[in-house]
Amino acid sequence: xxxxxxxxxxxxxxxxxxxMFPMTQYVSENISVxxxxxxxxxxxxQGEYPLLQIQSDGSLKEFDTTTGAGIEIDSSAEDxxxxxxxxxxxxxxxxxxxxxxxxxFGAGTYTAPNANYTLSTNYGFAAGLCGSAVAQGSGxxxxxxxxxxxxxxxxxxxxxxxxTASPTVVDYAVAQIPANPACxxxxxxxxxxxxxxxxxxxxxxxxxxxFAGYSGGVPKCV
Length: 222
What we know:
The protein is mainly β.
């Protein structure tokens, strides 16, 4: 296809791969899957936020945005409870947001309320905002961070209820991971794929972000 890139689905029931699906747009450095809506999110560095719709037979259909975000979207994440998708902009402090609750699919394209949200902070992010993850659950919290070095991250408070409005960040906090001997000194964010994830504890209901720190080009600590 146009991009020369694609995705391939692995069926975990029998450990078999579907045929490679060629995409018109480029694949995100970190895709995200919304199982409830049957979507694969693939925000890319060309400033687009393509969606792959999973069909009943397991095949895929690609739907591309009609307008670009204006930033290099470096990863994809979503609060699946509310349908708010995010994509941090590399070399920037901006996050692109898409409201998937008010989506209209066309002939290979889709439209949905979307907006860029820029963090105002004195902290710097290595290569800007790159990695992202959302802790699924009642907290509605996401995390974004840099790559190829640095220890700065931001926690994003996302909308708590579904709506059809243009999406925005409710609140955010920015901090740095402190130095630690277990990490070889200063914490250093990893490369691509991005070394951050998030989850909600089934025991406490608290939201957690998990970062992998690198030293000498390999993971050193979390």
